[in-house]
Design a protein that fits this description.
2 strands; two-stranded antiparallel ribbon; 6% strand; single chain; mainly alpha
Length: 230
């Protein structure tokens, strides 16, 4: 008689950490970008951007702080995913973790660049010159390029981890497929945008609730474990 295999959800310390950091790094990234930093940026006018930043230094500093928290959250999330999925494929899980660390590093670098932009903005308000405006424009472009670049290792790593989640069946497979499909669209879309291809933002939206949803799901229900009945 064959063993009867059943899947049971179990909450443990790893699943709690995984759920918390799925949600946390998504929340801090959204707050930093959508609500704090991006509203201050006018891509068509560097003077407006510098004026906004100089007049709202606390907002800029808060955005930088939230992204620093995001970077820490990304690394912890990667460690948790590695621990959960290394039995499924240790090599792929290791690659995913390494790419998450690289992503977090690029994110931190972009925040140092943003801090330089804040300094140039304050300097411009005190003593407006064309030279400062030109330097600030270059720094703003650099910040945007580095920030966009961090999506590439993120997208590859996320695809790997979501594939392993699907393969291991530790969460519902429809949820893993949601992540695989939508993060692929984000990765392709960001690469195209870096080459000045106009990508409708609506195509990137379906991924946004994924990390919140999977984080809440794993935190509340845990992850599936296999039980064998003789």
């Amino acid at each position: 008689m064959k063993d009867q295999i059943t899947y049971t959800y179990k909450r443990n310390r790893l699943s709690i950490f995984l759920g918390v950091f799925f949600f946390l790094q998504a929340a801090t990234s959204l707050i930093s970008g959508a609500f704090l930093f991006n509203p201050l940026i006018d891509d068509s006018n560097i003077v407006i951007t510098m004026t906004n930043m100089a007049n709202n230094p606390v907002t800029v500093q808060a955005a930088i702080l939230f992204d620093m928290i995001t970077a820490i959250g990304i690394i912890i999330l990667g460690i948790c995913l590695y621990q959960l999925l290394k039995k499924t494929d240790k090599l792929l899980a290791s690659i995913g973790l390494g790419l998450y660390i690289f992503e977090a590093t690029l994110l931190v670098v972009s925040k140092y660049v943003a801090f330089i932009l804040l300094g140039l903005s304050s300097l411009y308000i005190d003593s407006p010159t064309v030279e400062i405006a030109n330097y600030a424009s270059i720094v703003l472009d650099l910040n945007g390029f580095i920030y966009s670049s961090h999506i590439i290792p993120f997208g590859i790593a996320a695809f790997i981890f979501y594939y392993l989640l699907y393969k291991s069946n530790v969460i519902p497979r429809w949820m893993s497929l949601w992540g695989i499909i939508t993060v692929s669209v984000v990765l392709i879309g960001v690469v195209l945008m870096m080459y000045n291809v106009n990508v409708p933002f609506i195509l990137l939206v379906p991924y946004v609730p994924f990390e919140f949803g999977v984080g809440i799901f794993i935190f509340v229900k845990g992850v599936r474990i296999i039980e064998t009945d003789l």
